[in-house]
Amino acid sequence: MTYREVYEACKINPQHFWMQAAQAIDWDQKPSRALHQYENGLYDWFADGRVNTCWNAVDRHVMNGRGGQTAIIHESPVTNSSCAITYRELRDNVASLAGALAKQGLQKGDRVIIYMPMVPEAIVAMLACTRIGAIHSVVFGGFAANELAVRIDDCQPKAIIAASCGIEPNRIVPYKPLLDSAIDIAKHTVDFCVIFQREHAVAELTENRDVDWNDFQHNVSPANCVPVEGTHPAYILYTSGTTGAPKGVVRPTAGHLVALNWTMKNIYNVDPGDIFWAASDVGWVVGHSYICYAPLIHGNTTIVFEGKPVGTPDASTFWRIIAKYKVASFFTAPTAIRAVKREDPTGKFIRTFDLSSLRALFLAGERADPDTIEWAQNALNLPVIDHWWQTETGYAIAANPLGIEQLPIKIGSPSVAMPGYDVRILNESGYEVNRGELGAIAIKMPLPPGTLPNLWNADQRYRDSYLTTFPGYYETGDAGYMDSDDYLYIMARTDDVINVAGHRLSTGAMEEVLTAHPDVAECAVIGVTDPIKGQIPIGFLCLNARTYRNPKNIVEEVVNSVRQQIGPIAAFKLAVVVERLPKTRSGKILRNTMVKIADGQEFKMPATIDDPNILNEIREALLTIGYGTQ
Ligand code: COA
Ligand code: AMP
User: Fold this and answer.
1) Which is the most buried residue in 342, 476, 491, 517, by most CB within 10 A?
2) What gap in Å lies between CA 287 and CA 307, rounded to an integer?
3) Which residues 6+ apart lie within 8 Å of 236 measured at CB?
4) 43: which residues sit within 8 A by CB, 6+ positions away?
5) Is 528 touching ligand 1 by the criterion CB < 6 Å?
6) Which of 138, 251, 367, 413 has the most ligand 2 atoms within 8 A of CB, as the residue to mutate?
7) pTM of the full predicted structure?
8) What are 315-350's pLDDT values in tens digits?
């Protein structure tokens, strides 16, 4: 079948399409139908099925003769080590940890926060939770204690599973002080913490609260897989919204299994047994879907990579690992390729490795700029597939489905909508615009299986964030256009979310930190273009009239506060002090105009601007930190 035929088949009869796809999953109780739609406009997938995620990702492969196949390869240039874990070993490790959690009273529906770096134990912890129906929430290691505390209070976990440290190329990041401080800040009390000790920074355990990973599992009986309803949350993953409070995206169990499994062949074109590598982090959605769940559900070998595209030790790391393990399909963020390209512009490292196993390079997480795609295409001589998705959807909304057919690649476009996604470009009044015209990108409800049914404990926020602006549609928060061949082009966000090195961050959250500084009267944070990270944040501070302190010190303090309160991953290193912020007459800060000035782009003077002279002040301030043009 062609892509068009597959897409139409799903559109005409989604029940049939997804029930067919569901046959690839082992059910404890088969669902009677795929889609259940309710009168209030909401819907569920596979609601009356019963199933277990861990069984499908691990145990069934052992039962079906893949016990000896490598499930996880850990490749860690930052510790100079690597290891492999078979599906049988993975099952035993997961069943043991799950048994220990169950022995401590953890049950279906209880939440567990996982705060771990890129070690296989992070995957073991995720799977152990899903094995007993507990709901995990993985928190990325680059977030500060305060962000961890916010997540503890929102999902109220009974337990936290953490490692003693993470390892960045330039430093060891002890997790225990961050964990302790987060637990202190949080109002919710966790029952216990399980600490995976790493020799690089062994943590001192807190009495009556912390238990060592190995001791915890001593003498426990392995746990069996607990079947859960199709709609049971497999996990909660927090992502940035427009305010400081992150959104807890809920992932429904059955739809997640069915859809992710479908994507492995149809989008990534891999077969069970193939080596699949997504160089991301388990703290992000790409890590959930394509380091942990999808490859394992589909019977692939997945690579857990603890390193960076450059500097660990050099820009050949990706290619060395692909050659070493004969990776069939590789997935990373454009920013990683830009970093590699900067260090190795002629691609000389690429030519020193046998990359014949590799069939395609997939990019996502941010807009893939044409330069980067062309460089990778030329250097690798392979299809470079941009695909577009979000934490909320959990897998690609638009892609080039290599396993169905390879469509022509149009550079600058993540290609076409995947089955189940009815993507429309709407104007402000909610009407579809013409092909080629820019608009808000929305998806007609219902979204396909595996996508978010809700936000954790935030029904109204879910409706307000996604369903209200365009009734009957899911609002993606992205703006772009569709060409006459149905190819999508994702151009910008419509909200205050920025994308720094493939990481989604809220400028609103950073503004909340800046405003809390006693000398700051008003502020704005914008995302400006960065050649490697795509965007980086810059802060503008208006100081209180009675402040006589050196502005330099205040800038230093706010930079430090963002690092302390949001984390190093925000990459907030630049701020300037200005007298006033440019605003419309109604008081709205003209952030887009400020971005254009910083990027040195032409812009139209906003008709509603209160005082055009302020833009010159902004330009002057930006010049002092090397942004914008005279
Ligand atoms: N734990 C603690 N700190 C972390 C961290 C973690 N897991 N990950 C990153 N950080 C820190 C870094 O050490 C750095 O700190 P610094 O300010 O002291 O230098 C800061 O957060 C920013 O990190 P990063 O974005 O990784 O920037 P970088 O300059 O170190 O590296 C790239 C640049 C492009 C190499 C890097 O961003 C990269 O590999 N990006 C790929 C992103 C990706 O895969 N995204 C997945 C989405 S699909
Ligand atoms: P996240 O939820 O962190 O995965 O971020 C999702 C957001 O990243 C999307 O809403 C887009 O703004 C951006 N994004 C992800 N993939 C792409 C892509 N291929 N092209 C353009 N933007 C992308």
Assistant:
1) 476
2) 14
3) 111, 135, 136, 137, 155, 248, 249, 250, 251, 456
4) 35, 36, 37, 445, 446, 453
5) no
6) 367
7) 0.96
8) 999 999 999 999 999 999 999 999 999 999 999 999
